[in-house]
Amino acid sequence: MNRIHQKLQEDQKLLSIYFTAGYPSLNDTAKIIQDLEKNGVDMIEIGLPFSDPLADGPTIQASSTHALKNGMTTEILFQQLKDIRKTVSMPLILMGYFNPVLQYGVAEFCKKCQETGIDGLILPDLPLDVYQKEYEAIFKKYGLVNIFLITPQTSDARIQQIDAASDGFIYMVSSASVTGSQDGFGNSQESYFKRIAGMKLKNPQVVGFGISNSETFRQATKQAKGAIIGSAFIKFLTQNGVDKIGDFVKGIRK
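Structure (tokenized):
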């Protein structure tokens, strides 16, 4: 069974952390993953830096630019992850944009993911119909869960379509803004969370965008299975480096 499926079956609210590979320093990737698992994080999204990110706010964009300047590439990331399964057992997801995957070669990229122990992919700019027609068979061949995003603007019909095509969790974007641009959830988001919970989808939902502390984590997971923290964690790394990761996780879990 895929590690994502196993984790989703656990009777707890899941904390997923996103960080940009190759940031703050090129070779921090494996250490950050190991420290996050050691401190009780449930899943990790490893960001593949890209020069033209669509959905990322200034914090993640800056980390991506910095990582690219550090020399991070897709090939280097796979090299950094080649022994990660000797020390880490939780689900690992690569998140990025489709262009670097296409440049690498989709089949070769998916094969490398399987070899390094990656469990799933989040590619926000890969449309559902294109995925189903051209790439679904390749993803499944290499045991990868493809995770789709929904937003408050996504219609019920489209959500049902995404739910039917999904086999893992649905990434529930909390608002129409970019990452890191909000602080807390208002009534419109609360009602959106309730609306999705009321649809009784077959796939659990994990909320992303706008989660930065224990209160927003609690709000986001009241109706959903888990929540993803990205910008707040990257800000923490920028200010504190990679040696105090446990402090960040404790602040969310308190």
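The two ends are 31 Å apart (CA to CA). The chain has twelve helices and nine strands.
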